[in-house]
Amino acid sequence: MGISFLPVMEYLARRAFLAAGLCSQTASLPCEAGGTRTIHYWAPPGEPRLPPLLLIHGFGPMATWQWRRQVVPFSRRYHVVVPDLLCFGGSSPCPSSPPPSESGQAAALDALPGLAKTTRVAVVGTSYGGFVAYALARAAGPGRVGPVVISNSDLLKTAEDDRALLQRAGGEWASTADLLMPLDARTARRLMELTFYRRQLTAMLPDFVIGETVRVTNPLLHLHYLIDDQYVPVLSGDLVDLQKLFRDKREEKIELMKAITVGTDEFQVTPLEQDVLLIWGDHDQIFPLDKAFAVKRCLGENVELEIFKETGHVPQMEDPNRFNDVVLDFLLSSQKSPNQHDQ
């Protein structure tokens, strides 16, 4: 038997999380209207012995995949908690309730047992996770949420921006849901091209490999993926299923996209009291760089903007070493700042 793509990625992600001392955990939280919501998260066992740090994933698949290059270096200084947002992975919202807005997601995260209520939490959110990070920081206030990192997250996004994204993609898709949750190889390839600036090997694979549960039948075909600077073979007879990354809870995520309040009167961007680090890839085609300057102006005076050159929508994946250094420097200097709010 060979090694297929998804098991390899899942293995590498889990290996990184376990190396960071994180364990897979699940919490059942009560709903106001009755019933429970389930949140799956990764965190060290026991009570936090280091300052807590919450990593909030974006709309893309697999929180572990999005943060696997961060958890080990961050865990040396922080009690790292990585949740699956509601409607993602192992997390499920309240039954018979509307899909959660960003505020609903934030409220669920604030109730996680892995985050001690007596300690201020540093928060890092990417893309959609940046919406949630902002909502959490504003709702909980500086007494509960400390420094905030928002990466490639257009808090000023409008319906016009969604239409512009579809045009950049080629004008072939009717909705952002069709583009962001692809059902065919061509759309999956286009999404990867929009997300990453640096050429991804997976985007160069033929459609029959990218397509759903396609068996590589050519006995002479030997593919390799460059992962963590090592070539991992994908031998003939493997099943390579990139579509599973996007099919998981697809209908729930479509409804979740409809519940996004960014760009509506319900979501007004106001300055945060916390120190804020805004990170943006200079070749982001999902949320273009010019939006970074507009977001910075709206977030107040306590905002630093770091632009990552030659990266796209996910600098934590394309330039992880610099991302980790910049974020850790910001978090640690913010902790020492005389402007920090005491409990």
From TrEMBL:
<dbReference type="InterPro" id="IPR029058">
    <property type="entry name" value="AB_hydrolase_fold"/>
</dbReference>
<dbReference type="InterPro" id="IPR000073">
    <property type="entry name" value="AB_hydrolase_1"/>
</dbReference>
<dbReference type="InterPro" id="IPR052370">
    <property type="entry name" value="Meta-cleavage_hydrolase"/>
</dbReference>
<protein>
    <recommendedName>
        <fullName>AB hydrolase-1 domain-containing protein</fullName>
    </recommendedName>
</protein>
<dbReference type="Pfam" id="PF12697">
    <property type="entry name" value="Abhydrolase_6"/>
</dbReference>
<feature type="domain" description="AB hydrolase-1">
    <location>
        <begin position="53"/>
        <end position="325"/>
    </location>
</feature>
